[in-house]
Design brief:
Strand content: 5-15%
Order of helices and strands: EHEHHHHHEEH
Radius of gyration: 14 Å
Strand order of the largest sheet: 2-1-3-4
CATH topology: Glutaredoxin
CATH superfamily: Glutaredoxin
Shape: globular
CATH architecture: 3-Layer(aba) Sandwich
Structural class: alpha+beta
Number of helices: 7
Largest sheet: 4 strands, mixed
CATH class: Alpha Beta
Length: about 120
């Protein structure tokens, strides 16, 4: 199981704290430092849809020029923007078995891990 995110992100911190509190082992991938591959972004987008992976409510998105925002119309253009501005990726992303959990929802985590 791998948790992808940025360590200073409040939502990523909440997910990490919840996993630790519940004694669930996970690997952490800091994509701010380690980056994120186009292959991984495409894998996520194919599973969840690029619209869910790309965080249009983020400060990074709002700071992009309007022309660049309007150019994001499909998965390839979204992946390119996420590759160039990885802070625009919704956080955290948790890969668990065949599941992909995007964002942190305590009820969803509990439903999956506390069975």
């Amino acid at each position: 199981m791998t948790l992808y995110g940025i360590p200073n992100c409040d939502t990523t911190k909440k997910a990490m704290d919840w996993l630790k509190l519940n004694k669930i082992d996970f690997a952490f991938h800091n994509y701010k430092e380690a980056g994120i591959s186009v292959q991984k972004l495409n894998e996520w987008c194919n599973k969840a849809g690029w619209e869910k992976i790309l965080n249009k409510r983020s400060t990074t998105w709002r700071e992009l020029p309007a022309a660049k925002q309007k150019a994001v119309t499909d998965q390839p253009s979204a992946v390119q923007v996420m590759q160039q501005n990885n802070s625009i990726i919704k956080r955290p992303v948790l890969e668990y078995k065949e599941q992909l959990l995007i964002g942190f929802d305590e009820k969803k985590y509990a439903g999956i891990f506390q069975q």
